[in-house]
């Protein structure tokens, strides 16, 4: 089997049958996307959660719908893995409310992140200061090119709810940018090209190192 010419579905089936090379190929193909999904929210646990996600994919192969994308299926497992991880961390505290609490509150990280441009640093910082549910929706849409229907499949939410989260998430992110910008010039530069700056973060994992 040549992994470069093999579909995700075939690689998953081969991995399930014991082909470790197929598993490695699948891991390499989707590692970057799954890693940055966790790194922007729980950087200290990203490596472990990536491993759990791929193992979860292997274990849940029987639930994979063949009319769906394996990439979307993986993000669904990653989303559940993230929520399970955060619930475990906050078991003795108040119940997890990812619709109100941000990644910065749930999993505090460094006070600054390293991006190539000031606008990128500000956007990444602002993303971690909006409620997690909105951060997830925006990152899946802008960074991973997932449609509202695909995000619905990943999160288990109605498409209408996903569209509302995307719209409200943009508003919240713009508000956080306004609050966190160190200068009016940086605020205006970031907001002026908001969609372009958000889409211009193809390597947020590198920016967050």
Describe the structure.
The structure is a single chain. This protein has 209 residues and is mostly helical. The protein has one domain: Rna Polymerase Sigma Factor, Chain: A, CATH 1.10.1740. The chain contains 12 helices and no strands. α1 packs across α2 (20-39) and α9 runs antiparallel to α10. It is elongated, with a radius of gyration of 18 Å.
Write a brief caption for the model.
The protein has helices at 8-16, 20-39, 46-59, 70-89, 103-106, 118-127, 132-142, 148-155, 159-180, 184-192, 194-199, 204-208. By secondary structure, the chain is mostly helical.
- Low confidence ranges: 110-115, 204-209
Q: Structural class of the helix and strand makeup?
A: mainly alpha
User: Can you identify the CATH class?
Assistant: Mainly Alpha
What is the count of DSSP helices, taking H or I runs of 4+ residues? 12
Structurally, the number of domains stands at: 1
Helical content, roughly? 55-70%
Roughly how many Å is the radius of gyration?
18 Å
Number of strands: 0
Architecture, CATH level 2? Answer: Orthogonal Bundle
Main sheet properties: none
**String of helices and strands:** HHHHHHHHHHHH
The span between the termini is 35 Å
* Overall body shape: elongated
Strand content: under 5%
Quick one: CATH superfamily? RNA polymerase sigma factor, region 2, helix turn helix motif
Provide the CATH topology. Rna Polymerase Sigma Factor, Chain: A
Mean of all residue-level pLDDT scores: 84
